[in-house]
């Protein structure tokens, strides 16, 4: 899934910092003072490039950045990693999109020793969800750099008009509040969210977890037809069918759902926090001055939104410059550089920057509280953790569409579970 980052673009000056000695690892027989780093087009990358001269000055190393769009990035990785190319040292990758594929194929170097080597760098400062998502079979294969959590966007004015004093804290309250707004405010939906069967999976996941379900169980068996999953499909689809926009489309991704919300046509919207400036920027939103944020509402199993790393840094296993590659990652993900990124609007995986007033001063206060709540019990994945992610999303997303269009969500879940189990069995061969 492609998510555009619509967050801050400036970076505060980075304070000079000493680099802890990196641990040994990998084949450095061809070590070079030039580190080849491949990064995605992202505000994080732009911020980092501005601070890069400081790293080069401190270390005497030179960094060559190859910056690409997501499609081009995937194409290059596909070609170079399959060929075992060593001219790629550091990789910016999506842990939940290609992480399992990369780790399973041994494209990512084991960084377990390196992340434990520096007390100043402090691996324990990273949130548990993003750390879990960048770990494979007990080995650290990446360091999270950008995170996302699902939160509730809402309209303060519409709540007041409907006689509601606070945003809903539970899914039952959300359902009742959405119905009340739709009934009392003509032309405005009570709730909007993604509806396309693949795009909706990530945001549906928080509903699934909060009902007590997941895509697979502890043994890796498909569970999208568990009682909890069936309840979650029925709830999500029913909420959109009953309280969503009139004649709602079933192929909406986030730009479509966000547009409905920012044009003033919906009261509630669940979405990734990283997209919040679309709702609060007056240039993008007609309702910017009335938008509020709240933690994801609790279901029968509590409030269990995802807390994931949308991007991470890893080291190419075939690189012959792994020690210097780690020096770059250690600097780029260190506390000072991370705080600078956080101040520029890039949500971080480090706990310390969310506790630092400097790290949160540029975010809406209620959004900061919602994010902090999300990191407490957040789930480390927002889609099935598989190699062929796109195919899996199409399968588990079908019951969402069926529920929205009024079909039996329980029957749809049974059909999807059979297909998903076959998919899992085939992938395990």
Automatic annotation (TrEMBL):
Annotated signal peptide? 1-20
Q: Check the record and name the SUPFAM superfamilies matching this protein.
A: Periplasmic binding protein-like II
Q: Which InterPro entries match?
A: Bact_solute-bd_prot1 (IPR050490), SBP (IPR006059)
Does the UniProt entry include the keyword Cell division?
Answer: no
Gene3D superfamilies per record: Periplasmic binding protein-like II (3.40.190.10)
- Coiled-coil regions, chain positions: none
Keyword tags: Signal, Transport
The Swiss-Prot or TrEMBL record describes its family as follows: Belongs to the bacterial solute-binding protein 1 family.
Protein name (record): ABC transporter substrate-binding protein
């Amino acid at each position: 899934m492609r998510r555009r980052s619509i967050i801050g673009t400036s970076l505060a000056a980075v304070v000079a910092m000493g680099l802890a000695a990196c641990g040994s690892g990998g084949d450095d027989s061809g070590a070079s003072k030039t580190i080849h780093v491949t990064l995605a087009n992202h505000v994080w990358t732009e911020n980092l490039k501005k601070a890069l001269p400081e790293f080069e000055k401190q270390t005497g190393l030179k960094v060559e950045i190859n910056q690409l769009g997501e499609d081009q990035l995937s194409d290059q990785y596909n070609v170079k990693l399959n060929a075992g190319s060593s001219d790629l040292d550091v990789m910016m990758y999506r842990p939940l999109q290609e992480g399992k594929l990369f780790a399973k194929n041994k494209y990512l170097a084991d960084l377990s020793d390196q992340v434990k080597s520096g007390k100043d760098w402090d691996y324990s400062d990273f949130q548990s969800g993003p750390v879990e998502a960048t770990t494979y079979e007990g080995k650290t294969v990446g360091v999270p750099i950008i995170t996302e959590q699902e939160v509730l966007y809402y309209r303060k004015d519409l709540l007041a008009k409907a006689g509601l004093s606070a945003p809903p804290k539970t899914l039952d309250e959300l359902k009742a509040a959405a119905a009340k707004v739709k009934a009392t405010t003509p032309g405005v939906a009570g709730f909007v969210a993604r509806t396309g069967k693949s795009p909706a999976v990530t945001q549906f996941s928080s509903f699934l977890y909060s009902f007590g379900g997941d895509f697979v169980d502890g043994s890796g068996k498909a569970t999208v037809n568990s009682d909890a999953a069936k309840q979650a499909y029925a709830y999500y689809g029913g909420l959109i069918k009953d309280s969503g926009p009139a004649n709602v489309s079933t192929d909406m991704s986030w730009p479509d759902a966000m547009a409905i919300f920012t044009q003033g046509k919906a009261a509630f919207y669940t979405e990734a926090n990283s997209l919040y400036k679309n709702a609060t920027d007056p240039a993008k939103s007609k309702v910017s001055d009335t938008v509020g944020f709240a933690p994801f509402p609790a279901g029968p199993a509590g409030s269990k939104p995802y807390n994931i790393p949308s991007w991470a840094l890893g080291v190419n296993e075939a690189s012959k410059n792994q020690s210097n590659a780690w020096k770059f990652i250690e600097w780029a993900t260190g506390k000072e550089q991370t705080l600078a990124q956080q101040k520029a609007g890039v949500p971080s995986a480090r706990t310390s920057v969310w506790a630092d007033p400097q790290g949160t001063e540029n975010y809406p206060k209620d959004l900061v509280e919602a994010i902090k709540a999300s990191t407490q019990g957040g789930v480390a994945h927002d889609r099935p953790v598989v190699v062929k992610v796109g195919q899996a999303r199409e399968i588990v997303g079908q019951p969402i569409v069926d529920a929205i269009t009024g079909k039996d969500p329980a029957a749809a879940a049974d059909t999807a579970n059979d297909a998903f189990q076959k998919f899992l069995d085939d992938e395990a061969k």
